[in-house]
Specification:
Number of helices: 2
Order of helices and strands: EEHEEEEHEE
Mean pLDDT: 96
CATH topology: Multidrug-efflux Transporter 1 Regulator Bmrr, Chain A
Strand content: 35-45%
Strand order of the largest sheet: 1-6-8-7-3-4-2-5
Low-confidence stretches: none
CATH superfamily: Regulatory factor, effector binding domain
Length: 144
């Protein structure tokens, strides 16, 4: 698959997430469960999500993802137990769309890294994936 990479400005957005360290072989179920839990909490609280669910990955090492999953919001909320208030950052991002299953999304990240190298850009923070459909995700990678 060819990846069309664009640069855009991303506005800061409040979000509510569950953070954790997840073994890569359990990532699909764990991320899905965390997104479901955040969605359920927001529904009970009467706070609608302001977009599709996302996962932001801070580190991937030794087969373990250090990440957070949840929803963007229109207004900030307070943390409550395992539900952590955070923010998707204001940033210049390189972005692309991956169509296919999660397991093959590594190719989109490879394309983003190759584009950064070819264009003199460097990562400037943790990337995140927005799950717009079962087989379609948007990837945002902060750059400088």
């Amino acid at each position: 698959m060819k990846y069309d990479i664009k640069v855009q400005e991303h506005a800061a957005r409040p979000a509510l997430v569950i953070k954790g360290k997840i073994k890569i072989e359990q990532a699909g179920d764990a991320i899905g469960g965390n997104i479901g839990a955040v969605g359920g909490y927001l529904e009970k609280a009467g706070v609608p999500p302001a977009g599709a669910p996302f996962t932001r990955t801070y580190q991937f090492a030794d087969g373990v993802l250090d990440c957070e999953s949840g929803f963007p919001l229109a207004q900030p909320v307070k943390s409550q137990g395992k539900f952590v208030a955070t923010e998707l950052p204001k940033a210049t991002v390189a972005t692309t769309v991956h169509v296919g299953d999660q397991a093959s999304s590594e190719k989109a990240y490879e394309a983003l890294h190759a584009w950064m190298a070819a264009n003199g850009k460097q990562p400037a923070g943790a990337p995140w994936e927005v799950y717009v459909a079962d087989d379609r995700m948007e990837i945002y990678f902060p750059i400088r």
